[in-house]
Amino acid sequence: MIRFFAATQDIDASAGSIKLSAEDREHIRVLRLRPDEQFIVCDGDGIDYTCKLGQHNDNATAEIITHNKSRGEPTVRCSVYIAFQKGDRLDYAVQKSVELGVYEIILFESERCIAVPRDLPKKTARLQRIAFETAKLSGRGRIPSVTCGGKFKDIVITAGRLMLPLFFYESEDNLHIKDVLERHFASPTAIEGFEQGSVSVITGPEGGFEPHETELARTECFNIVSLGPRILRSETAPAAALAAIMYQSGNF
């Protein structure tokens, strides 16, 4: 079913109507939706409204038929920290992360980053647009944010505050993600000061992490884990990690 997102102030649940944006109105016109044809308008906070076009048939408003909690939002809140990468690799990483249920994406710079965008606001805005379009196509109930977290030493402290902090290191031979996830999700318990169900994932750039960066993550109580015996591309690692987390947490 076709999906749109609407701002909270444009949703009048008591009146049973939603004001559609100019962009969505144009999209509806191009699609030539019939008056009785249903579509979804999401509030961006996990609620889906099943709608049809308003009585005036001018594409300006949607008439609410029913509403339900979005099925596309996972029960685990996963923040993914992705190192800057060259070319269009970040496009792929953001797109697949949104499809797989990421809560938010934070970009950062580490020592082995080959390229850092000169115009970060422009780059971030472009990636946010990719997240927006992907959220619509993949049935998400919210649009994950894409932000820049700065240097590695800054983001590792923030990411380490979540309930299950995971740091993926290509040279780790002893601890596999499967072991950590099975242990954690077998009997998850609330820990004071941590958000229940929150997970942080840190993946590196094309050249991987420096050993001292890994040790800093270890001092911040991260689980230093492996994704297996094969070396994954930098844009593939976030998707592989998310897929494992969603599966083990029962979100597949």
Give a description of the structure.
This protein is an alpha/beta fold and 252 residues long. It folds into two domains: 3-69, Hypothetical PUA domain-like, domain 1 (Ribosomal Protein L25, Chain P); 77-248, 3-Layer(aba) Sandwich (Alpha/beta knot), CATH 3.40.1280.10. Helix content is 31%, strand content 25%. It has a six-stranded mixed β-sheet, with no helix packed on it. Mean pLDDT is 91; it is low at 190-195.
Please supply descriptive tags for the structure shown above.
252 residues; alpha/beta; Ribosomal Protein L25, Chain P; Alpha/beta knot; 2 domains; 25% strand; elongated
Let me know the number of strands: 12
Give me the Rg, rounded.
20 Å
Order of helices and strands: EEEHEEEEHEHEHEHEHEH
Helix count from the secondary structure assignment: 7
Which class of secondary structure composition applies to the elements? alpha/beta
Q: How much β-strand is present in the residues?
A: 15-25%
Q: Give the uncertain stretches in residue-range form.
A: 190-195
Strand order of the largest sheet: 1-4-5-6-3-2
What oligomerization state is this entry in?
single chain
- CATH class call of the largest domain: Alpha Beta
Main pleated sheet: 6 strands, mixed
Q: What CATH architecture of the largest domain do you see?
A: 3-Layer(aba) Sandwich
- What shape does the CA trace take? elongated
